[in-house]
Amino acid sequence: MFSKILIANRGEIACRVIETARAMGVKTVAVYSDADRGARHVALADEAVHIGAAPARESYLVIEKLIEAAKRTGAEGIHPGYGFLSENAAFADACKAAGIVFIGPPASAIRAMGSKSEAKKLMEIAKVPLVPGYHGDDQSPELLANEAQRIGFPVLIKAAAGGGGKGMRPVLKAEQFAEALAGAKREAKAAFADDHVLIEKYLERPRHIEIQVFADDRGNCVYLFERDCSIQRRHQKVIEEAPAPGMDPAHRRAMGEAAVAAAKAIGYVGAGTVEFIVDQSGEFYFMEMNTRLQVEHPVTEMITGQDLVEWQLRIATGAKLPLTQEQLRIDGHSFEVRLYAEDPARGFLPSVGTLRHLVLPREREGFRVDTGVRAGDEVSMNYDPMIAKIIVHGETRDAALRRLRVALGETEVVGVRTNAALLARIAAHPAFAAGEVDTGFIERHRAVLLPKAAPLSDRALALAALARLEEIARDAAALAQASNDRHSPWFSVQGWRPNGEGHDDLRWSEAGTDIVVTARYPREGGYVLALPGGELRAVASRDSEGRLRAEIGGDTLIGRVVTTAANDGGVDDIVFVDGEMRTLRRVDPRDVSLADAGAAGDGSVKSPLPGKVIDVKVEEGAIVSRGDALLVLEAMKMEHTLTAPADGKVKRVIYGVGDQVAEGVDLIEFEPSS
Ligand code: MV4
């Protein structure tokens, strides 16, 4: 076994590899760019080497820097993870030349699968089923048109060098062929500097089912069953599962054996995945082979009980496969969802920012989370915006799906937009529960999965109201305690009560719509909330994870409300419930823009809320500009930076760090310059 390896990657896969290496007693070396100095994978590894600037081109993709880092630290092997250099044959060669083990397949196997048309020629010889089509070298338009005719429309034109759907064109009728061919060639030329195309029978609504294979360097090869990755958006996988719904033992075996034949045909060693497309009748056809460990490998680990990174490390050091085909079994069912920082409102473009609040499901029996980030980390434009993979396992598909829904209900992200609501809606969809998965799933159900604007539910609004009422009660209690006059009616915890029962009007706005919830305080305790759907009795408590637990009407709901200062100085209550997130902007005289709330006309900066001074940014006599930070107040578990209301001078700093201050007191005496 290795005594030390270097992980030429970042994020969750780097963390994943480090964890297994540690469990096997193998020391780890992380590498990091300027952007990743404080990253989780760096903290986790035994050693870390800085390899350059944030852009991957200048760090994670620079072969010489990685080899140099491995040499310098004495690492005997390099694990490439996925993406970056994982399928780069030149990198595998460079490792070998430097006397370092590339923890992946031989460079020749990577090259063999690099071109779709070359791969197909090899697969044809190995008798792996191919989609009826043409993958020859003659690229004359006349010949290609004739081949299309022979195959029969509809056909699909694909770039030979392609991947991810680039240069792919369906053609329904012969008349459209010439134009589609020209388009596909232009796109292929631009994307891959290679305009070779192949033509295939176009399968409608196919499924993407892939087989995990493993080979050792003694000619043994096994398959670790299948994963169904049919649910994709623009060629990006969204949910993967193992085993594939509806797969029967005969098909499983036929596909597994075809995948092993594919691996053997190219002298494969290590972890690989053979992708098939499967038509509605269950016929399967080779698509491509990924010569690396894949993002979705955990679902295979969950159903086989094997650690695939451990297998990789053992095979890379010359060991034989840990298990035979007969010893491998499927246990239960597993799902993985990919939580991405992307904005559904902007066509799912990456959403960058700071992860100001991040709660992922707690790992426990049947629940696993693979992540490379922590709260406070930055999601930047430099790398893939995946936040985490959430993986569940259960005895049956239904049991696993129930756990998936629970896990998504526990997922909370503030600071970047995410695809979490899409994931929750897929997990809740009856067609998904029925296993009706194919590559058209999201498109077919888009009205439900990607609604324009779902109305705010009474459940979300009730939770927001209860959180706010808790806060009002807490602030009132704190203020009453700080006050000399404990009996002052202003400190009533139970709202404004001119005659008898108290009430509070809670106001928000969301997408330009005003929202009011009137809360009454019945004598028997709890609240009565006037929600759009009617009045409901509500009682709030907290669960062991600090989440808000509400008994509303006859229902129990669990969620969380995260109160946060927005960039524009406003205050948002962000409600997580039922797998969805809603952002409610507070409308409250007490919460008018915190940035200038302190700017009274009398030349002083006042405390907008009761709280504690945690930082004073200026000294007496300082000359400041409008908007400069003066003092940081912690209130309602948030930090509020109070800024200069105008250009001017700091005359007096009245409170210091650690001082508790009431609402409305002068914090800084300020003299605007005229
Ligand atoms: C196909 C196909 C239908 N017929 N080939 C998309 C990515 C590329 N690697 C292969 N892809 C497809 N090839 C034939 N002959 C439909 C797709 C396809 C697809 C495949 C797998 C997962 C998602 C997909 C989404 C759209 C199209």
Per-chain topology:
Blueprint: E1 4-7, H1 11-23, E2 27-33, H2 40-44, E3 47-52, H3 63-73, E4 77-79, H4 89-97, E5 101-102, H5 107-112, H6 116-125, E6 133-134, H7 141-151, E7 155-159, E8 169-171, H8 177-192, E9 197-201, E10 207-215, E11 221-233, E12 236-242, H9 249-265, E13 270-278, E14 284-290, H10 297-304, H11 308-316, E15 333-340, E16 342-343, E17 349-350, E18 353-354, E19 357-359, E20 367-371, E21 378-379, E22 386-394, H12 397-409, E23 412-414, H13 420-428, H14 430-433, H15 441-444, H16 446-449, H17 458-482, E24 503-510, E25 513-520, E26 527-531, E27 534-542, E28 548-552, E29 555-565, E30 571-577, E31 580-586, H18 594-597, E32 604-606, E33 611-616, E34 623-624, E35 629-635, E36 638-643, E37 648-653, E38 660-661, E39 666-672
Parallel strand pairs: 1-2, 1-4, 2-3, 4-5
Antiparallel strand pairs: 6-9, 7-8, 7-9, 10-11, 10-13, 11-12, 12-15, 13-14, 15-22, 16-17, 18-21, 19-23, 20-22, 24-25, 24-31, 25-26, 26-27, 27-28, 28-29, 29-30, 30-31, 32-39, 33-35, 33-38, 34-37, 35-36, 37-39
The structure holds ligand MV4.
Structural class: alpha+beta
Q: What is the CATH architecture term of the largest domain? A: 2-Layer Sandwich
The figure for the number of domains is 6
Runs in which pLDDT lies below 50 for 5 or more consecutive residues are 591-600
Computed CA radius of gyration, to the nearest angstrom: 30 Å
Q: Trace the largest sheet across and list its strands.
A: 14-13-10-11-12-15-22-20
Ends: how far apart? Answer: 75 Å
At the fourth level of CATH, the homologous superfamily of the largest domain is: ATP-grasp fold, B domain
Associated small molecules: ligand MV4
Beta content comes to: 25-35%
What is the arithmetic mean of pLDDT? 91
CATH fold descriptor of the largest domain: D-amino Acid Aminotransferase, Chain A, domain 1
| Major sheet characteristics | 8 strands, antiparallel
